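Record type: monomer structure entry
Structure origin: computed from sequence
Chain ID: A
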Amino acid sequence: MYSYLLFIFAYVGRIINLKIGDPNVCAKPVKISNLSVTQKELDIECCPNYIYQNRKCEACPSGKFGQDCLMPCLTNYYGVQCKHMCNCTGNTTCDPINGCVCFEGFTGKHCTDACSSGRYGVNCGKECFCAQNAKCDPVTGMCLCPAGWFGNHCTKECKSGKFGKDCNETCDCSDEETCDVKTGQCSERVNLNADPEINESKSTVTIYIMMAAAVIGLVCVVTMILKAKEALCRMVQKQKSDSTKLKIKRRKDHRRPSNHNENSQTVSFTAETEMSALEPSFEEDLYCEIQDTNATEPVGINAKMSLRSFSQN
């Protein structure tokens, strides 16, 4: 009821605003019959192919014509008030608004070029959205899904037991086999969750192997360090022994002929040799802290015995 009242108010407002002589305004005779008298009056309205808007009569938009622009263009006509006629050839059709346009799926000056991949529609003005690198229909934009996939955008994989184009084929596989959604080929089913204890034990064994390898590597490193230290200590001991022998030889070469002096020199040399042999060096303290004591004792005793035998002779 409210819409009816609004229509009446709009119609009355149009009559009030329109006057004979205004652009595109026409007077239409109307008969009004009463019980006693029949009268003729004029109805003021927009002329055909015009429509009342913005408080005036304006031309019908493209694709429309007739009284109040309620009629669509006839076949092969287009444009404002449908006054233009199409003359379309080839891959073209007459559009009531734009005239000759390319068929859906074609583009170019002469409408001879098919839409590029991912485009469709009139003048290829619309874009496709297809997954799995699927092509789309240049006219409708429908995705042409590859084997194994379906859906508006090819985002759904074939359900169990189906394969092929549009998932129309049925698999022929046993319950213990899986079906390839593309080719339908059967393959042995792999159940990753069948033996969780085996998987867990494999992981545990792997961890133990890694730990054992780390321990073996550590033992090898420590062994190499100890052997290097032992070799270094031997070299230091050898150098000290050679030095002691050299000192004894030099003492023998320079001893005096006198027995008294010889004895005193022998005693002095013996004490000096013992002190020199028992005196720990800096390298031994640094590298051979344990070996120093054991290594110095034989050297001192051997030096004493050598010097005493020398003095007795």
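Annotation 1: The first helix runs from residue 2 to 17.
Annotation 2: The CA atoms of residues 89 and 100 lie 8 Å apart.
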